[in-house]
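re: the backbone from monday

yeah here it is again, tokenized this time
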């Protein structure tokens, strides 16, 4: 077997799908268009699979409900807000720089920059992300900052968009033009 374990293979496939989602879906749509019966055959095949794996599916669903007890019960909006409040409390409830404590403008900051990019191309769902944060030690990788302090930190560390933090030097022509317009570099 080319993969060390079933889990490895599943993990690889999941990443592959996340990376190529658009093209996979597009080609699937294309195939359905060329073969109008394909959709029905696919549906029947997955129905057969569900019948054959009923026990497995039920066990999976039980596990899922245990992991996400709110699912289908509590409105997502309310669940997410409460989860966010929990995360904020976990991280000390106030901005680590200035002490601002209104949850509406508090943000989780990735201390060394990178933020969600640290997940690679996979975009975590807010629920997944916040649950992961609850397992983090405050002040190690993540900290709580208010929107102002976070924005200022981004500028100081050049984490913000290249439009605000140009890495390339302006040309002589650009410098002359800037001078003429009374602008600073
Ligand atoms: Zn602050």
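seq for it, each position gets an aa:
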């Amino acid at each position: 077997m080319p993969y060390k374990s079933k889990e490895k293979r599943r993990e690889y496939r999941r990443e592959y799908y996340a990376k190529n989602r658009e093209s996979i879906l597009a080609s699937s749509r294309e195939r359905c268009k060329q073969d109008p019966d394909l959709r029905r055959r696919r549906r029947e095949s997955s129905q057969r699979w569900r019948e054959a794996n009923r026990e497995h599916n039920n066990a999976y669903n039980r596990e899922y409900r245990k992991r996400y007890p709110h699912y289908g019960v509590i409105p997502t909006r309310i669940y997410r807000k409460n989860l966010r409040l929990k995360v904020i409390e976990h991280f000390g409830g106030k901005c680590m720089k200035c002490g601002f404590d209104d949850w509406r403008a508090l943000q989780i900051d990735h201390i060394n920059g990178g933020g969600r990019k640290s997940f690679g191309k996979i975009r975590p769902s807010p629920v997944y992300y916040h649950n992961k944060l609850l397992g983090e030690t405050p002040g190690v990788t993540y900290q709580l900052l208010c929107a102002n302090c976070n924005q200022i930190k981004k500028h100081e560390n050049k984490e913000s968009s290249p439009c605000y933090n140009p890495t390339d030097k302006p040309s002589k022509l650009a410098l002359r033009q800037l001078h003429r317009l009374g602008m600073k570099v």
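The beta strands are 106-110, 142-146. The mean pLDDT is 87.
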